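To the wet lab folks,

You asked to see what we're planning to order before we commit. Fair enough. Below is the target structure as tokens, and below that is the sequence we designed to fit it. If anything looks off to you, flag it before the synthesis order goes out.
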């Protein structure tokens, strides 16, 4: 048996775990957004300010790519034959739709 066969044969996703993860993503997004916005102001030397701004931009791009992967995985879950995870899909889709970084 391949790993993908095992994953595909599982019945559903734990809705409560997904809800908990959605809340965590929302909280972390707020914190990360503020930290990245404030990062350059922690430094006085221009080269440090520039480096911090570059880091903040790279981190924001990486986080955005992570959100895109979540969206893609959710779309795959929605297309899965015999899908019974409508509540999970709705929870994640709503979180992504309301996410400040995806507006």
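Sequence we intend to order:
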């Amino acid at each position: 048996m391949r790993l993908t066969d095992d994953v595909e044969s599982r019945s559903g996703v734990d809705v409560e775990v997904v809800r908990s993860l959605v809340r965590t993503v929302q909280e972390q997004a707020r914190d990360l957004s503020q930290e990245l916005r404030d990062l350059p102001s922690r430094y006085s030397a221009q080269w440090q300010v520039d480096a911090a701004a570059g880091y903040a931009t790279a981190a924001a791009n990486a986080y955005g790519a992570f959100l895109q992967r979540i969206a893609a995985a959710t779309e795959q879950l929605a297309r899965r034959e015999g899908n019974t995870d409508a509540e999970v899909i709705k929870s994640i889709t709503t979180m992504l739709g309301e996410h400040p970084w995806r507006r």
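Structural context that might help your review: Helices lie at 3-9, 15-38, 46-79, 86-98. The mean pLDDT is 82.

Thanks,
Computational group
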